[in-house]
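Hey, sorry to bother you again with one of my protein questions. There's a protein on my desk that I can't quite get my head around. No rush at all, and the record is pasted right below.
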Amino acid sequence: MVRHGQSAGNVARDLADAAGAAMIDIDHRDMDVPLSELGEAQARSLGHWFAAMPERERPEVVLASPYVRAVRTAELIGAGGQVRVDERLREREFGVLDRLTTLGIHERFPEQAEHRGILGKFYHRPPGGESWCDVILRLRSALDTISLHHADKRVLVVGHQVVVLCLRYILEGLTEAEVLAIDREADVANCGVTEYDFEPDCPDACRPTLKLYNFTAPLDIEGTPVTTAPDAKVAAE
């Protein structure tokens, strides 16, 4: 699993926070936000790392969120040939809180800020948006499809920060407290790699084994800067 490269939305979010603004200034719909120039370089560096692998270890199937930044990241990585889009891998939807900074949420929707403080982001669903649980429900379906159609393949999923974290929750059987603790430790790096190994005859209910998490050495090797900012629409996370 790979988070997309740095996007123009990541950059806009940083500028909004630095300026103390209520809104993130970006012209695109969130699904149309492109990679930044650095994001493209990050994806290419990761692609070089995959290309240097022995063929028997490279991804054979590439699945991506339909968002432009994820598809472009997958294309630049170039592993596994054609990119297959799956809308269930899309970013978490924030509804009325979309594009608002933390300051903006407290100013415009103080009741939502209070509600989120009570429920926590795992369960809080903003109007028109999703909770982490909602994302997990659709990801369980996506994993069932992967198991059905690609059970004997090495699969690469290119998505978003919350997608990586929620997939960890499912694959490792984590609790709410455990996945949120991982989230608090650090943001998922742009083009950071999370890898699982799967042994079909494993006695532990065939549970995948985590091998890598937030692995950024492919970028470090080429001197490509590593970025870890939340997505533009996740300013309140």
